[in-house]
Amino acid sequence: MVDVGKGPWLDDDEQKAWRSYLLMRKTLETHMERHLQREFGLSGSDFEILVNLSEAETGRMRAFELGQATQWEKSRMSHHLTRMEKRGLVRRESCDARYPEVAITDEGRAAIEACAPEHAARIRKFFVDVFGPERLTALGEASAEVVDTIRKHESSDCPPEVRGHC
């Protein structure tokens, strides 16, 4: 049992900031995903896959590369790609490598092109404009530092089962 009286606990201001961040992230993510689903029939996960594929030079990536880009586990990626394939958004194509490539279809490209402008407008309204240029720059720098700190931890003293390998 953990003794809650000992440990590196957060002070009141730190706890307030952390919980405020969690609420902001969850509220923003949920709101954005609801718009994607209701207006375009895409889940946030669909959007994430389609963005990665549409930004790839060839419109295709190997599944493990998608896993690295999205930080998804292999089984989640496989199940989600199967659902997207049934809807005609992506297709798996065999190649010389061990794992098949995942390619965006014409339907997938049309879907991402249809929703991207509205999605970007909402990001601007609910995130970019709220932060403003100076705070947005500071947030970007702080976010990069957090990611870098986690990457260093993962490559040194992080237990293997926590590292998040795809």
TrEMBL record:
<dbReference type="Pfam" id="PF12802">
    <property type="entry name" value="MarR_2"/>
</dbReference>
<dbReference type="GO" id="GO:0003700">
    <property type="term" value="F:DNA-binding transcription factor activity"/>
</dbReference>
<dbReference type="InterPro" id="IPR036390">
    <property type="entry name" value="WH_DNA-bd_sf"/>
</dbReference>
<feature type="domain" description="HTH marR-type">
    <location>
        <begin position="35"/>
        <end position="135"/>
    </location>
</feature>
<dbReference type="InterPro" id="IPR000835">
    <property type="entry name" value="HTH_MarR-typ"/>
</dbReference>
<dbReference type="InterPro" id="IPR039422">
    <property type="entry name" value="MarR/SlyA-like"/>
</dbReference>
<dbReference type="GO" id="GO:0006950">
    <property type="term" value="P:response to stress"/>
</dbReference>
<protein>
    <submittedName>
        <fullName>MarR family transcriptional regulator</fullName>
    </submittedName>
</protein>
<dbReference type="InterPro" id="IPR036388">
    <property type="entry name" value="WH-like_DNA-bd_sf"/>
</dbReference>
